[in-house]
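Handover notes (outgoing to incoming on-call)

Open items:
1. Transcriptional regulator-like protein: sequence verified, structure written out, both below. Nothing else pending on this one.
2. Nothing else urgent.
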Amino acid sequence: MTSVFVAGSRQLVRLNEQVLERLRNIVTGSYQVLIGDANGADKAVQSFLFGQGYSKVLVFCSGLKCRNNLGAWPTFNVDVPKGVTGRAFYTYKDIEMAKKADYGLMLWDGKSPGTINNVAELLKRERKVLVYFAPKQLFLPVGSVCDMEGLLLHCAPDDVLKIEKKVGLKDKLRKAVESEQSVLHF
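Transcriptional regulator-like protein structure tokens:
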């Protein structure tokens, strides 16, 4: 079954009609939704899926307890090494979702390092991602490092610098480029 890793910024607590249309397409297509347990976009998407009575949802949680599972869907609890806290603690579940997903749908506020890190993780695994860029209310397809760089051009330079400091985006993009180059067979 085709799976979609759906995630987004914690600041995005409401889903507009553009996003709801894409989520309806996922439901109509009977895709497996892989989603986290965070407040914000994760919880808003969970609320929509619950309201639709959609059952093909798997909620990923770091550690033993989920923060949000509105539909009482099955969970995938990701082991996190002792002593890991903060952003790093929750990144473990995001990496698992990126590993298991066929595609990504990211709802991004243009500032959240976690969401753009998810895009990079999906790219590293040669997965295509559709990013809803909330500040301009548009969808941008990201299937390559070049696409990712184009997405970042929509952001304020200071925000890109902050993201770089928090998640090491340049290194992640370098690894994605290496992954892209490794698939060339000539």
